[in-house]
Amino acid sequence: MNLRKLFGKKLPPGVELKSLYEKLSDEIDGPASLQYAVVDGYLGLRSQANRDGWMNWSGWYEETVDILRAYLPEGAGVEAGRIRKDLDAIREAGETGADEGRFAYEEVDRLALDVVAWCNTNQKLILLPEGVDSWIDTVGKCEG
To answer: Hey, CA dihedral for 114, 144, 35, 44, is it positive or negative?
Structure first.
């Protein structure tokens, strides 16, 4: 088996995600925004999947899936259920270290398009509520 083929998948909307990440990084409140948390979290998950097939899964990735699961389906209409299923598949791949041969690459690729669409819909920065330290602290208040 060719490891480059297995782990070296290319991100379909990579240019848009890189541009979004750089734009948010450069804005004064950008890195504190939900948009940044969504893009950065997605890019972290994608990197983990492609770099080593989920073998370094940790609490940060769990929290990232929770944040994406709480916010990304918002406004997605009929796609909301599919987004949640994709995130569940990604969590499963991460938790099993892909020992079962399930890498969730298709779900990761599909989710990239959802992240771009969500950011395009939510262009005005969404900042952390007063008195909240991180986006993971807001998850229980909004997840459906």
So the answer is: negative
Kindly state the tokens that stand for 75: 């406004």
CB atoms within 10 A of CB 138: 18
Task: For the chain, state the CA radius of gyration.
Answer: 15
Residue 141 pLDDT: 54
pTM of the predicted protein model = 0.84
Mean pLDDT for all residues in the chain: 86
What is the distance of C-alpha 110 from the center of its chain? 11
Enumerate the domain spans of the chain: 27-129
Query: Does residue 8 have a pLDDT over 90?
Result: no
DSSP structural state of residue 75: T
Helix (H) or strand (E) holding 33: none
Q: What is the mean pLDDT of residues 134-142?
A: 82
Residue 7, exposed/middle/buried by CB under 10 A (0-12, 13-18, 19+)?
Answer: middle
Residues 119, 46: Cα–Cα separation, whole Å: 17
- Mean pLDDT for 29-42 is 94
Which has the closest alpha carbon to 136: 21, 37, 20? 37
Through-space distance between the first and last CA atoms of the chain, rounded to whole angstroms? 40
